[in-house]
Amino acid sequence: MNDQTTIHCHPLRWVVMGVSGCGKSEIGRRLAHRLGLAYVEGDDDHPAANVAKMAAGTPLDDADRQDWLLILQARIRAARERGIGLVLSCSALKRRYRDLLREGDPALLFVHLDGARELIAARMQARGEHFMPLALLDSQLRDLEPPAPDENGLRLDIRHPPEQLIENIVQHFTTAVPKVTVALTPEPLSRLRERGAK
User: Directed axis angle between helix 162-176 and helix 24-35, to 10°?
Assistant: First the structure.
């Protein structure tokens, strides 16, 4: 039996977005594996000054995020120019941040992981070592501008298990934008669980 399921899915560059603690890293990794695409952890591109500022409990402002977003934009543009797919996890909280990322690929797709503050706070407290303290959650929620109807986006409720969220993404965009064929591979859940979520 063939271990791949072929669907039609577009675009090929994706951003899994939301506030810290919503599960961007886990869902991003799972989606990338399911689609057979490269995965990029956006937090890894934060300059040391940004990481230190957040670790100290000080929210980033637009100027702090500018250079970081330009790095991510360059990654997206490079993937588009090479004609390859990419899944990137990035908070992308504001419309202006997403507009900057879209300059790298106008067809960029956003998957917004959304949930109640109490659930996200509990996840942040349970995840152990991470530079983002719980104290910054409220500032991120204040900054959050969910994708508007004119953006290429899908909102998902993080109360659902990761497996269901991935199926929702695949099913939604298979129906909504059937333009490019992508081979999907089964997801080795045990391997992904071992990696953990940021």
Answer: 50
